[in-house]
Design goal:
The chain is of the alpha/beta class. Helices cover 23% and strands 38% of the residues. The protein has a single domain, classed as Roll (2,3-Dihydroxybiphenyl 1,2-Dioxygenase, domain 1). Strand 3 and strand 4 form a beta hairpin.
Length: 128
């Protein structure tokens, strides 16, 4: 079972604005704002629900490539809202909301590239 995931971004303030707006429709909020002074080096933002952060972005050395993170959405409407919020927040479309039956018949997802080019997805596995 996955407990949390994190990666470095090129601009933490830009990432803060993007992820706060993009993840809000899914009920995922900024829970922790840890400064470089607190850690003697790197700053981190922890997003999650119910006081449990499970998605982290921060400063530091970025990996050589981009990553993919998928967030579970309870409804297809929330996938649509995620996609719209991501585009409004400055993300780039990487796959409009819709069925992806090659994964399974109820796989409804949408993809947005964050400001660093990471592929951020929301997916609903429930029937319409």
């Amino acid at each position: 079972m996955l407990d949390h995931v994190g990666f470095a971004v090129s601009d933490l303030e830009r990432a803060r604005k993007f992820y706060q707006q993009t993840l809000s429709p899914l009920g995922i909020m900024l829970l922790y704002d840890i400064t470089a002074e607190q850690t003697d080096g790197e700053a981190y933002l922890g997003f999650g629900e119910d006081q449990r952060p499970y998605f982290w972005v921060g400063t530091g050395r970025r990996f050589g490539g981009n990553i993919h993170v998928a967030f579970l959405a309870e409804t297809r409407d929330l996938v649509d809202q995620f996609h719209a919020a991501g585009l409004k927040a400055g993300g780039k479309d990487n796959g409009a909301p819709g069925l992806r039956p090659h994964y399974h018949k109820n796989y409804y997802g949408a993809f947005v590239l964050d400001p660093d080019g990471n592929n951020i997805e929301a997916v609903c596995h429930r029937p319409a």
